[in-house]
Each structure stands twice: as C-alpha cells, then as structure tokens.
Amino acid sequence: MMVMSKLPSVNTSIFSVMSAMASKYEAINLAQGFPNFESDCKLNELVTKAMRDKHNQYAPMPGLLSLREKISEKIEKEHRVSYNPKTEITITAGATQAIFTAIAATINKGDEVIIFTPAYDCYEPTITLFGGKTIAYQLEAPYYKPNWGEVKNLLTQKTKMLIINTPHNPSGTLFTKEDMLALQEIVVAHNLLVISDEVYEHIIFDGHIHQSAARFSALKNRTFITASFGKTFHVTGWKLGYCVAPEVLMQEFRKVHQYNVFCVNHPMQVAISNYLEDSDKYMALPKFYENKRDTFLSLMKDSKFAIIPSQGTYFQLLGFAEITDESDIAFAERLTKNYGLATIPTSVFNNKQKDFKQLRVCFAKTDETLREAAAILQSI
Predict the structure, then answer these.
(1) What angle do CA 82, 86, 87 make, to 5 degrees?
(2) Boundaries of each Aminotransferase class I/classII large domain copy (predicted)?
C-alpha cells in the first residue's frame, strides 16, 4: 500500500539517534535533555495519593481548574499580569503538544512562520504538516543574538507568525527586554501571532530576569506561551505542560486540543496543583542549576574547548574548532564510540545545517556524572 508522506524529509530525531548510540556503546549520556537524578519524593507521593483518592478518570478538557488557578497566581506573582484560569490557560501533554496545537489552530496553507535557528526540532515539521512554510532566521555563534532589522527583512505579506524560544535551547542565551520590545514592535506593526516557547522559564542564571512575553502587554495579546512542568520539576517523562494565551486565541487552541488529546493525566495534575502551593519548589531552581553549571565549568576550566557560560536552560555549548576540523556530527559520533560520551551536534538545529563546530551537553546530571564526563572531555 502506497502512502504519500506529508513529512517526506523528516527522519529520526537527533535525540533518539544519539541516545541509541549512547546505549549501544555504553556511553555517558549528556545528549538528551533530561536529569539523571530523582524527582522530589514529595511530588511522587502526591501523585500516589491522588491515585488512591480516586482521581483516575478523565480530567476536565482544559485541565484541572485548581491547577490552572495556581498557574494564574504564579504568573501574576512573577510577571505582574493576569490570565483568566477559566478561559486563558490549558493544561497540555507537555510543551511539544502545546506548540503543535497552537500551530494547528492558526497556520493555514501558504502561511509563513519565522523561526530562529538553531531551533527545537518540532517547530518546522509541525508548520509543514499544516501547509505552512518555515522561514529560518539564523542566529550566529557564539552569542546567538538577533538582529531585528534583519528579521524585518524576512517579513512578507504571507508572514503569519514568529516562534521564539527563551531561555534558548541549545545556546543557553536569553532574549533581553530590548529584544522583546523589538519583537513587540514588529508583531504589532504587521499584525502577527507569536509562539513563545518558555519551557526553561525557571532555569536562569547570574541574576538575570526571564523576559516572558507575558510582561509586554501588546505582545501578550497575540502570543501563545508554552511551558513545561516536566522541565521545571525534573519529571520529563510525565509529559505535562501548559499553554497560556488571550481568550480569543485560547478558544481556537482548545478546538484542536479537545480532538487531539482531549485531556491529560489527571492524578499528576492533582499532585502538581498541590505541589505549587510552595513557590520555593520552583523559585530555588535558578541557584540549583547555576551550581550544576558552575560545577561543570570548573571541571572544564583546563580543557581545550571554547566555552561561553550558559545564561539559562540546563545546556552548555562546547566549541571544538581548536581541537579538530571534523564536522560536529562526525566528532559527536567519534566521542560516543571512542570515548564513551554522547553529546548533541548543534548543526542539526541550524538553517541548512550550518556547522559552528559546537556540541551541546546537558548538565542536569549528578555531580558524579559531570566529573566523569569532564574527565573524558579534558583528555581530548
């Protein structure tokens, strides 16, 4: 039976490829972005309690109201803006589903969507799936800062949306207040929509402030913000996140959401709703991961890799141009096979696979794992 693929150029993701190689060669896995330490036992106990309390049937389609109320309170506390928990917040099966749903609800055949590469690899296939066209704006190493004049030059009459990601994966850089104001000016002037991928919203270092799209009123009014409890609470396997947007956009989002997943894991929503009563559970994250970053950078201080400290996320880029002239893909494969360390080659996230000779590593690992990984990297 012949099937005409709607995504003919999509292959297995680099995360799956490198993790499979890590398993095959019994390598330390700094490739895929997940912690290798346990989540808070209190959170796990709250899930068990929710199951025992019989919260095991369908949750409400937009998510448990108590959880949506906690999210609304959290955003108001952090950014001094309000979202109506009944009409402007939806609980999703992770941030990837939220991004998929926002694109599905708004992008039509022929619409153009600007993304900033290096970009998370779910953006472009989803745009393509719904008939849109991806327009890539390449951020340049080593600082990955946008030139908003160049972004403006990419706009056409077909431009419908921009997708941003801050804190930025894989570079670890942040959009500044000035960046967000420039973005706001563009989208208002050209009547555009925005998806702001903010899954690392609580993982920011060195006293920097997360410049959420919610902080800018005109931008807030035309933006889907997506976030992840999995990233925040070290439970990536739970695939639980949320989306906030003005009511007019959320109405369209929920039309797709209800026929895509309808609702998401009920006992975990109950547990996280209770867990969010203590704001220290997420407010302590910046210092926790900053310590992880600093531990890793201290271990790497005498290596031959070029390193600019990550400003956010739990990823760090390692420049290897002074070590080898191999492509980043070839070097990443050799590191895995010959040295027992799996990383991510960053060219796979770039427009036309532009190779800046950088690898991405995840430092959301135990100190023991970081020491073992750094010892390997130091030996190169």
Answers:
(1) 80
(2) 27-375
